[in-house]
Amino acid sequence: MSLKTVTSASPLMEEKLPWYVRLQRWYRRHRDAVVAWTFLTPMVIYFVIMTFVPLAFLVGISFTEWNIISPPRWVGMANLQKVFSSFDNWFYPKVIGRTILYAIAILVLNIAGGFFIALVLNQNIKGKGIFRTMWYLPSVFSGAVVALLLRIYLAGSSQGVLNMVLHRLFGTQPVDWIQSTVWMPIIGVLFVVWQGIGFTVIFFLAGLQGIDENLYDAAKIDGANGRQLLRYITIPQMVPVLLFISVTGMIGSMQMWEVPKIITAGGPNGMTYTLVYSIQNDSFAALEMGMGTAQSLVLFIMLLVFIGWQLNQYRKQYGV
Amino acid sequence: MKRRSLITRVLSYAFLGISSFIMIYPVLFMALGSFTTNNRFLEATILPIPNTLNVTLFQRAFGAGVWDSYVFTLKRCVFYISVTLLAGLIGGYIFSKLRFPGKNKVFLLFLSGMVMPGILMLVPQYLLMAWFPLAGGNNILGQGGHGFVGEWPVLFIYGWVPPFAIFLLKQSFDMLPTEYEDAAKMDGAGIFTIIFRVYGPLLKPPVVALTIVTFLGVWNDYLWPSLTIAGHPEYYPIAYRIQSVVLSDWSPVGTTDYPSVMVRTFLATWPPAAVYFILQRYFVQGLVASGLKG
User: Is B10 exposed, middle or buried (0-12, 13-18, 19+ CB in 10 A)?
Assistant: First the structure.
């Protein structure tokens, strides 16, 4: 604190001091800013180059037709129009609609299931840690590797692992799972939920444990039953966690790629052809970079709109 | 009342037991399958139970470049854990404890990196690598060569400013009172001493959590290597290696030697599981702290 009195000496006196003393005093006054910007300048430059330059590429290329090999050709909004047009029997609108349906199914199962498991685990139960560990375990693995494993399990012959086990247990006939338009979408949704639900459980559990016990006691004295406790105390108290989970979950579930990329190649009959797979396919297999980036842009904007809408809903309902 | 709670209790245990078993069933099947001989495997009902410890498959599986991938992936993990912690601690300290003009703007800029879905940036980030000036035969404008694509730096160049780490550690710094550093400052301690010696030991849970998250992220990384390093097996990270090895000698028709496939997936999945089991206490603490205050 004594430094402050020294540095606040009159400017006239400071003029006469040698430059290095003035520099030293200036540094003392602005120490925080000097230290901060010394480290932040390279970080900001790096961040802008590595994040915003690619983002500019993304936007720029989406207005062109380009196959990487020959120079790009400006086509304006044609790519974006194609994404929303009836081109190829409404191919792209179908991809977008399918992606949204998958995302909703995944998000609903993930949140409802995760909340239920967290409620069960939140009781006074022995071995809670072990159950929680088992529920989280699938989340620590590489999506690509477990999807590969799933592909092997789902092999259609009677020698396929799932067919073999089901036959031994229930005597069922072999099913060609990967080619089944009924089973494959269900399996795809369950796979994504299986990999992501542990994260939801952990967060809900932490949220439940953070609720003040006194709230329950007070409500019980007023004669509230179990369902009312859940409806009027637990759920409102969980809104911040719910918000966090639904936003991160939305970003995650819109990006389903392991199933089409590793297991089905978008099949059967296009049932698992999601937007992210379409982006990859158009960009690197069909070499239509313009279409790939235009779809990326659409997905990005869709995510922003969804998240904004979700935040708004919560704000209206719960005043978060 | 008491009887009802007993029933709920029994039901809860039964439900948790069965559901947890279903959750780990596919992984358990794979882990047991990788120690089983093929004949024994084909007799499996619910789970393959090894009768003798069959480790010959492991020896064979390690032959196909898996060991090289282990070493390379581990190098990548160490690099990214160091970078994440270094940038995270310095950034977290700056945004939490220092006051300077432009602070909120820069913080928001970094946070914007968290909402940008990484998967969408794959294509343009690939292009930036291919057009990187003066790399891989490129001229100053980034044309003429192949840039970093197909060379090892492409797997090390992104992610030096980790928004999530900075955000999480800023929250953690916020909870520590500034008095800690005042005494150290009196003694003339510099910024590194303050961050790593004074606050560092107090930040163990978030630091360990970030270490695990980064390890898992890098160990499991598949999409980016699959785009940028394909065709250069000497730089295959483990997830990509396993994928390419398995698909090259496995076909969905005909009889398959399942255990030899399971062994390979086991080799890619046991390290994340082990790290998670050992350090899970911190993992849960650290993760949860980030979400609930965010």
Answer: exposed
Alpha carbon distance A6, A160 (integer Å): 82
Kindly state whether B87 is in contact with chain A, defined as any CB-CB distance less than 8 angstroms: yes
- For chain A, say whether B6 makes contact (Cβ under 8 Å): no
Of the pLDDT bands very low, low, confident and very high (cuts 50, 70, 90), residue A99 is very high
Report all structural domains of chain B as residue ranges with CATH numbers, in order of start: 1-57 (no CATH), 64-293 (1.10.3720.10)
Assign B135 a pLDDT band (cuts: 50, 70, 90). Answer: confident
Cα–Cα distance between A64 and A76 in angstroms, integer? 7
- Which residues of chain A make contact with B23, given a CB cutoff of 8 A? 134-135, 137-138, 194, 198
- Cβ distance of B125 and A131 shorter than 8 Å: no
What domains can you pick out in chain A, each with its CATH number? 2-61 (no CATH), 82-318 (1.10.3720.10)
CB contacts under 8 A, B 100-159 vs A, are 100-103, 106, 109-110, 112-113, 115-117, 119-125, 127-128, 157-158
Indicate the average pLDDT of chain A. Answer: 86
Q: Which of A197, A231, A227 is nearest to A113 (CA)?
A: A197
User: What angle, 0 to 180 degrees and rounded to 10, lies between the N-to-C axes of helices B204-219 and B258-293?
Assistant: 140
The distance of A29 to chain B (nearest Cα, Å) reads 11
Distance separating alpha carbons of residues A112 and B143, to the nearest angstrom: 51
Size of interface A-B (CB pairs under 8 A): 227
Confidence check: pLDDT of A101 > 90: yes
**Structural Rg of chain A based on CA atoms:** 28
Cα B172 to Cα B167: distance, rounded to the nearest angstrom: 9
